[in-house]
């Protein structure tokens, strides 16, 4: 029996429009973070709608209209869970909102009238979208403190830098070095933010490397999908690769910068 050798072709970078979109998303969320927690929540609500608008097309899911409705309702519930409370604990309603959103994903499948083809793929894809949106809403509680806002800016800077490093994939000699390059520039961007804000740079180095790793990994997963030749899936890839880093500054704040959380 013959075996096919493993493909060792270096992975190419993501499309340039995805990089441009990531830069824009990072800048918008960064300015919203500096404004207030309410403005950031409003910006994240817009991100929820855009992700829902393109998610089904990006993953070629059945019943796109039902998928859009489920993600919009669940995502907005998550944003409301962190944006509406006037005092902490800020995440007390997030588990309930996420649980109800996932239940809605299953109810959506029960209401399908097409014989439910690819039901597992459909449910798991919607749950993945809700999980990514849940990562994004973790940015909101941090912007209620100055130290937390600084962590948010550092994570967004790392995601932005890692997306720019994706452009190196256009040169074959650098295509195999995209991951270490993304981690390096992400860590450097976060350290630069720390130096500007006169913060402890070692903590920001961890923040930047971890944020760049998550952002780069998600683009690496979504980038090869056939649908990435279309504008909407590219926008989804950009948005989700930024939202996913929201978990990093929250964990860093909880472990190393307790003043960032009220």
Give a short synopsis of this structure.
By secondary structure, this protein is an all-alpha fold. It contains eleven helices and no strands. The longest helix is centred in the first third of the chain and has 23 residues, at 37-59.
Task: Offer a few descriptive terms.
globular, disordered N terminus, 262 residues, mainly alpha, 11 helices
What would you note in describing this structure?
49% of the residues are buried. Helix 1 packs antiparallel against helix 2 (37-59) and helix 7 crosses helix 9. The model is unreliable at 1-11 (pLDDT under 50). The protein has helices spanning 16-35, 37-59, 64-83, 94-110, 119-137, 139-142, 146-165, 178-196, 201-222, 231-243, 247-256. The radius of gyration is 19 Å and the shape is globular. It is mostly helical. The longest helix is centred in the first third of the chain and has 23 residues, at 37-59. It has eleven helices and no strands. 71% of the residues lie in helices and 0% in strands.
Break the fold down into its secondary structure elements and pairings.
Layout: H1 16-35, H2 37-59, H3 64-83, H4 94-110, H5 119-137, H6 139-142, H7 146-165, H8 178-196, H9 201-222, H10 231-243, H11 247-256
Helix pairs in contact: 1-2, 1-7, 1-10, 2-3, 2-5, 2-10, 3-4, 3-5, 4-5, 7-8, 7-9, 7-11, 8-9, 9-10, 9-11
Main beta sheet strand tally, sense and closure: none
**Helix residue percentage:** over 70%
Tally of individual helices: 11
Mean pLDDT: 89
Overall shape: it is globular
Fraction of residues in β-strands: under 5%
Structural class: mainly alpha
Q: Give me the strand/helix succession.
A: HHHHHHHHHHH
> What distance separates the N and C termini?
63 Å
Low-confidence stretches are 1-11
Q: Work out the number of β strands.
A: 0
What is the rounded Rg? 19 Å
């Amino acid at each position: 029996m013959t075996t096919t050798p493993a493909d060792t072709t270096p992975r190419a970078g993501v499309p340039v429009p995805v990089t441009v979109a990531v830069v824009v998303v990072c800048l918008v969320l960064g300015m919203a973070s500096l404004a207030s927690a309410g403005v950031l929540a409003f910006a994240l609500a817009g991100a929820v709608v855009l992700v829902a608008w393109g998610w089904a097309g990006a993953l070629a899911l059945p019943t796109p209209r039902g998928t859009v409705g489920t993600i919009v309702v669940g995502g907005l519930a998550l944003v409301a869970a962190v944006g509406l409370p006037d005092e902490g604990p800020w995440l007390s309603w997030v588990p309930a909102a996420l649980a109800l959103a996932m239940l809605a994903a299953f109810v959506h499948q029960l209401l399908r009238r097409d014989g439910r083809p690819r039901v597992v793929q459909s449910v798991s894809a919607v749950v993945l979208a809700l999980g990514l949106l849940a990562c994004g809403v973790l940015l909101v509680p941090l912007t209620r403190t100055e130290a937390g806002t600084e962590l948010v800016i550092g994570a967004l800077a790392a995601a932005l830098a890692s997306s720019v490093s994706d452009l190196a994939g256009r040169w074959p000699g650098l295509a195999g070095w995209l991951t270490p390059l993304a981690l390096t520039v992400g860590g450097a961007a976060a350290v630069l933010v720390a130096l500007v804000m006169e913060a402890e740079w070692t903590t920001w180095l961890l923040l930047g490397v971890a944020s760049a790793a998550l952002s780069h990994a998600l683009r690496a997963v979504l980038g090869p999908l056939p649908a990435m030749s279309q504008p909407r899936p590219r926008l989804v890839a950009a948005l989700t690769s930024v939202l996913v880093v929201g978990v990093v500054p929250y964990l860093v704040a909880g472990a190393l910068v307790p003043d960032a959380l009220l």
